[in-house]
TrEMBL record:
InterPro entries: Aldolase_TIM (IPR013785), OxRdtase_FMN_N (IPR001155), Oye-like (IPR045247). Residues 10-352 form the NADH:flavin oxidoreductase/NADH oxidase N-terminal domain. This is 12-oxophytodienoate reductase. Coiled coil: none annotated. GO terms for molecular function: FMN binding; oxidoreductase activity. Signal peptide: none annotated.
Amino acid sequence: MTNESTAKPLFKTFNSDKLNLPNRTVMAPMTRGFSPGNVPDENVAAYYRRRAENEVGLIITEGTGINHPSSVSGAGIPLFHGEEALSGWAEVVKEVHEAGGKIAPQLWHVGMTRSKGDVPNEEAEPVGPSGLNLDGEQVNEPMSIGEVEEIVQSYAEAAAEAKRLGFDAIEIHGAHGYLIDQFFWKQTNQRTDRYGGDFTDRMQFAVEIVEACRQEVGEDFPVIFRFSQWKMNDYKAKLVDTPDELDRFLKRLTEAGVDIFHCSTRRFWEPEFEGSDLNLAGWTKKLSGKPVISVGSVGLDGVFTDFSGAGKANLDGLVDKIDNEEFDLVAIGRSLLMDPEWVKKVQEGRTDDLLAFSKDALHKLY
Ligand SMILES: Cc1cc2nc3c(=O)[nH]c(=O)nc-3n(C[C@H](O)[C@H](O)[C@H](O)COP(=O)(O)O)c2cc1C
C-alpha cells in the first residue's frame, strides 16, 4: 500500500541542465478535442490549471497542430499556429504559471492517419513519407522534398512560438505511428532519397526537425522527444529489436539536440529486452545518459485498450523504479484525466480517495 512516506521518491525534486521540477510527475499528453474552432479556450486553460494547482510537476499538453493544412484531424483539436489559437495557448500558459506549474506543448502532425475530408481543412490531403497509411495501403503520392522541408520549417516555427509564449519546454511527438514515426517505420517509409533507406536513414526527418527546433529555441530551452515502439494500429510493432539499435537511435537524436526522452509504453513495468528488467525508459536512460520520462498504466489495473479497467495498483513498483533511478520522471495519463487531484492525493497518502478511471472521463473536460 502506498502511503505518504513510501511515495516520497515521487516527490523528490527533478534537476537537470535545462529543466527543474518540484517532483517527478508529468501529465501525459492527451488529445481531448475540446477546443472550439481549434482554439483552446478558457475551459481548456482551467483544465490544465487544475492539474497545476494539484502539484503535477510538468504538464505536457494534448497534441497540437503545427502550421500545415493536414497536421491534425478532428473537430476541437487545438492548433499551434495563427493568432487566435496562439493567444488561447498564451492564456493556458498564464493560468498554469499562476498556479505554480510548468507546461510544454506537444507539437504534432498526424501524417497518414488523417483521412481526406476530415475537419479542419476538409480539402487537405493526408501526407506521409510514401503515401502509405499504417495498414500499408497506398492512399496518396509520397511527400515531395519541398513538402518535407516545409513541414520541418513548420515544426521550427512552432518551437519558436512556444518559447515566445512562455512555455517551459517543447515536446516533439515522434511516437504512435504519426508523421515522424511514419518516417522511422519501415512499413510506412519506403523512400529511396535521403529520408528513406536503412533505419538510420529513416531518422533523417526527425533529426532535421530536432535541429531546426533547436536552432529556433537556442541552447538553453528544453526539447523533449517522445517515441514509442507501438503504433496506433499495431501494439506489437517494433522500431528497434536490440539495445544496440536503440543506442544508434538515441545517439542521433541526442546529437540533433534532444534533452529529455519520453519513452511511451503501455505498461511501465514491462521489460523492453530479454535478460533485463529495464523498461524502454530504463534502457534509454542507461544508453543515452539523458533524463527520461516513463509512462503506461500508472494507477490502473486495466490494459490500454480496456477503458473500463481501473484501479489503484502499481504505485509501489513505480516508486521503486524511480527510487532506483531506472527512470527520472513518470507521465500519468488516464488517472490524471479522471482525477485532477491524483498527484496531490498520492503525495498526501490519500490513495483511498483516488478516483478510479472510468471511460466517462474521456467525454468530459474537467
Ligand atoms: C484520451 C487519450 C488521448 C491521448 N492523446 C495523446 C496525444 O495527443 N499524444 C500522445 O503522445 N499520446 C496520447 N495519448 C497516450 C497517453 O499520452 C499515454 O501515453 C497513454 O494514455 C498511457 O498512459 P496511461 O496508461 O497513464 O493513460 C492519449 C491517451 C488517451 C487515453
